[in-house]
Amino acid sequence: MSELGVDLSSVQPQLLTPELAETSDLLITMGCGEACPYVPGLKRLDWPLEDPKGKPLERVREIRDEVKARILKLIKEEGWGKAET
């Protein structure tokens, strides 16, 4: 992500708790299918993406770019604002 000017060094994964879910409008999971967490009343999308852990750098970049494309498409579909390309 630093290649794109995004600093994630201080970001840590968060456990999906009921309290966290209460503050959310949408839950996007990545490839967990039926094993994904269910939160009543929360819209959920599951994007079947490969886990980048342990993959070669070029594959990680491809996965990153696929996530970006999906996010931009979602922003456009939901009408949340002007999506950057």
Automatic annotation (TrEMBL):
Residue intervals of the Phosphotyrosine protein phosphatase I domain: 1-77
Alphabetical keyword list: Arsenical resistance
Protein name as annotated: Phosphotyrosine protein phosphatase I domain-containing protein
